[in-house]
Amino acid sequence: MLTFSWALPLAGALLLLLIGNADGRRNGLVRWLALAVSLATFGVTLALWAGFNSASADFQFVERVPWIPAFGIDYYVGIDGISLLLVVLTGFLTPIALLSSWESVEKKVKEFSIFVLALEAAMIGVFVSLDLFLFYVFWDAMLIPMYFLIGIWGYDQRIYAAVKFMLYTMAGSVLMLVAILGLAYLHSEATGSYSFDLLKLYTLDIAPNTQRWFFLAFAIAFAIKVPLFPFHTWLPDAHVQAPTAGSIILAGVLLKMGTYGLVRFAFPLFPMAATEFAPWIALLAVIGIVYGALVAMVQPDMKKLVAYSSVSHLGFVVLGICAMNVQGVQGAVYQMLAHGISTGGLFLIVGMLSDRRHTRLIAEFGGLKNVMPRLTAAFLIITLASIGMPALNGFIGEFLTMLGAFLWDPRYVVAAGLGVILSAVYMLWMFQRVYLGSVTHEENETLSDLQPREWASVIPLCAAAIVMGVFPMIFLKPMEPAVQKLVAQVQSVQPLRVENEGQRAKVKSQRSSQTFEVTRVTSQVQGEP
Amino acid sequence: MFNTQLDAIVPMLCVTLAALASMGAEALRRPGEKTPIGWLGIIGLLFGGAAAVLLWDRNAEGFGVIAADNFGLFVTVILTIVGVLTIMFSSQVIERDGLPAGEYYSLLLFSIVGMIMMATATDLLVVFIALEILSLAVYVLTAIRRESMQGTEAAFKYFLLGAFSSAFFLYGIAFTYGVTGSTRLAAVGSFLSAQSMTNNPMILLALGLLLVGFAFKISAVPFHMWTPDAYEGAPAIVTGFMSTGVKAAAFAAFARVFLSAFEPFKDEWAPVVALIAIATMVLGTVVGVAQSNLKRMLAYSSIAHGGYLLVGLVAANQVGKAAILFYLLAYSVTNLAAFGVIALVGSRDKANDSLRDYAGLWHTRPALAALMTVCLLSLGGLPPTAGFIGKWYIFSAAVSAGYYSLAVIGMLTSVVSVFFYLRVVVMMYMADGKGEAVQVRVTGIGMAALAVSIAAIFYLGILPTKVLDLAANSISTIF
Asked: Does residue B130 carry a pLDDT above 60?
């Protein structure tokens, strides 16, 4: 079942490969087929949700087949509440991305659809993998379709952006690969056999210094992907140059792979090092929140503005993860989903404007409310969602992360709060300049409002933003057990600076008895949301 | 089979017979007549490969100097694959460029005989003879386009430096003999492990000289100077053959000599080889970035890949030894296919091997561009391709031997290498090719060779278990 969720889009991509469309005559067929495949995939992800047992913290729908037995590598997939929601998000955004490029992508439609579907397959693969080797394969394979999407169908500076994206991400991830190999080797030292099984590696007892190095290798790989300040410089380029579909997927799902990696791998694998580094990472996150917001404010280009707003919003996610309490992590995961919906929506609508006018400069617009009221309304909903207006999705995530961060260390919340205010400033200011007032440019007077196809892509996003804002428990409930388990797992280990082997062994035996205690405490604290 | 002494050399005999048959066929050919000489070679190679498969696990020995152990047979199979693919790619090139088919194929086959001998030799002198057989044939192949100035220059450089390094190698053998009284690897090894010789300057000198000889053949830094010129000057498919076959054979012998006979001196040579590996990886990738000629770029890339293989050699644990074998296979298939594309894209008058010539290849030959992309991604080590598994295997060997720094440097250089592989992809897919993209006609057999290579790249990348096990199994018997 779970295999189906990533194999289906891949099979769709291979099917498209067989369709001869050199002259573009079958573009229509290709588009519909790709959309059908992506919708079917969404259906599969929803079916996963329907069959998911929200009360359990365990991985579900687990499938396990030996792959490279000599190294203990398995094809091992499974989802818990955290990955479930991200898988659903991926399934949800891909059809929208395909719809968004229905008309704007005219050349090589077949190849475009193939790359989008292959990308979806790889992204879902990342979220469902429980074997580190398998995870890395999907993680790296994902770069290839994204690289082509930016490089072929992007805007003017596309080649530069595509290469920069690829190299930045690879540079981070190869170090992670070394750390993964190191982990497998440590496992063979401890037990006599290699293993890339995440759950087995969780239980590995790693010396503090090794933890630090390995944690850094993982954290840098994920920080680049998030992107955390100061590793964010590839993002504005990639976002601005990518075609709309690419931006939606990039902002909606790809960036979440970084934060997901922190939650799933970096923190629980190396809890001691993670707790030690968490204040520094949180500091970078807070810098990112404020810096991203400030830079977004002065952007003349709408797409760039939204791109920098992503840097800011993802800072909240990282902050919540660093807090490592139930509120913080739940908020972080919620914010991942919310950001996927709202930023995806922003890129979608900016893309619509850009398709109509072939410019994304704020100064070229103004007073669009008079010409295209429906599009304006949709944009307003998404904008408010993005700045964290209550009753919309952004609010829940930001509130929970800040609550979590407050319980951990209130100082971070002060700066983060500044980011919230700034986000209202830059988003509303952009809204005002683009949509309100009178029409300043003649060309804009004849712009058409939302088309039926565009309705089909905008409505689900707006609906999702509202549903997530009003009924957060639908989403919080399935992830709750998983988050509690994760937090207990990380918090059971205090930041130790014990280098002495004997002491370490002693502490370890104590730790196992503490675990139960901590679980109980955190579940009490958790009563609030 | 009937005679155990002969068993071990059956693969070589098959290829030798095919080489002789090619010469005969060329001699009997009437002027202007077209004879399918290439098929003779393919048949001989297939028989050789089949013989190698049949000899598996039998540890046949021939005359005390050839050992058809699983390690040697694994490399033999790689070499026959390289040979078959080279011939398949060559058929179109030979016809197009008017190369002398008989000479070309027989030289190719003779050099493969030398390579197989080198991979299975257990006597230093036989290694040397094998080295000379393959080198002489390859020198001539480099200059097979007689009218090409560049080819002649390349062959001349290659020959001079190659002869020089052969002399080093021979000198190393002489010193080894002087100290140990034997050129048989087993005898050398047992002599060295029996006596504490680590301070003996003679044996260290011998070690150094042998190292130089091997380093030259695998084009490791700082003995790589000939590589870019020779690779650029030779016809593309010959370059592909050199960069895979010669490297595979040389690495097999390198591993055999250093990991069996000179194993007791590992503490002496491992740091040196580690340094060479680092220099090779770094220089290969960094200089590769600056190239605008595709063949030259891939020449530097093949230098870098030699560096990765050296990492496996330094790690020298069970994983490392098996990783060398797997990597050789993955790299050979991938690199040969990449050069195959270059060869197919060329024309008689123009090699079409500068980056610019590939602009917009996607629009004119989408299949060729896609296949080239797969090769480049595999060379860059991205999943799900053979190159990824190969790199993963090599570096897990380094990590498990404690060489984290080698693994990190190797990984980072592989990112740099991805940059220049991507330049080709950018050209093919993203540059505006205003009719610059070459018009290519590819014959069925060339396409078949590419299809086979690509299938192999994905097979090794997605389902590597079987081959990994074979590689692990083939080293367990000897080292």
From this structure: yes
Calpha distance A529→B447 (Å, rounded): 62
Q: Which of residues 134-173 of A touch B (CB under 8 A)?
A: 136-138, 140-141, 143-144, 147-148, 151-152, 158-159, 162-163, 166-167, 170-171
ipTM, 2 dp: 0.89
Chain B nearest CA to A171, separation (Å): 6
Nearest to A426 by CA among A233, A331, A227, A290: A290
Q: Which two tokens stand for residue A37?
A: 């495949």
Sequential DSSP letters for B291-303: --BHHHHHHHHHH
Q: Is B462 on the interface with A (CB under 8 A)?
A: no
Q: Does B395 touch chain A (CB under 8 A)?
A: yes
Instruction: State how far the Cα of B452 lies from the Cα of A258, in Å rounded to an integer.
Output: 37
User: What CA–CA distance (Å, rounded) separates A350 from A232?
Assistant: 21
Phi-psi region of A204 (alpha: psi -120 to 50; beta: other; left: phi over 0): beta
Question: Can you give the pLDDT at residue B311?
Answer: 93
8 Å CB contact between B113 and B67: no
The pLDDT assigned to A504 comes to 45
Q: What is the pLDDT of residue A515?
A: 42
State the best of A21, A68, A146 to mutate against chain B, taking most chain B CBs within 10 Å.
A68
CB A386 within 8 Å of CB A423: yes
Whole-prediction pTM: 0.89
Contact call for residues B130 and B121 (beta carbons, < 8 A): yes
Measured CA to CA in angstroms, residue B50 lies from B15, B325, B329 at distances of: 11, 19, 17
Spell out the residues 6+ positions from residue A444 whose beta carbon is closer than 8 angstroms to its own.
A357, A364, A365, A366, A367, A368, A371
What ranges do the domains of chain B cover? 4-476
> Is the C-alpha dihedral spanning B207, B208, B209, B210 positive or negative?
positive
**H or E element at residue A68:** strand A60-68
- Where does residue A173 rank: exposed (0-12), middle (13-18), buried (19+ CB within 10 A)? buried
CA distance A483 to A56: 11
Residue B438 has a pLDDT of: 61
Average pLDDT, chain A: 85
* Amino acid at position A340, single letter: G
Gap from B17 CA to chain A (nearest CA, Å): 39
For an interface test with B, which of A21, A132, A156, A185 has the most B Cβ atoms less than 10 Å from its Cβ?
A185
pLDDT tens track for A6-32 = 999 999 999 888 887 777 778 888 889
Using alpha carbons, list the distances in angstroms from residue A515 to A479, A484, A487, A491: 20, 12, 10, 8
Q: Alpha helices, DSSP H only, in B381-403? A: 386-400
A68 touches chain B (CB under 8 A): yes
Mutation for A interface: B325, B465, B466, most A CBs within 10 A: B465
A167 to B419: CB separation less than 8 angstroms, yes or no:
yes
Burial class for A433, CB neighbours closer than 10 Å (0-12, 13-18, 19+): middle
Is the distance from CB of B436 to CB of B360 less than 8 angstroms? Answer: yes
First to last CA, chain B: 26
Could you give phi then psi for residue A21, rounded to 5 degrees?
-145, 40
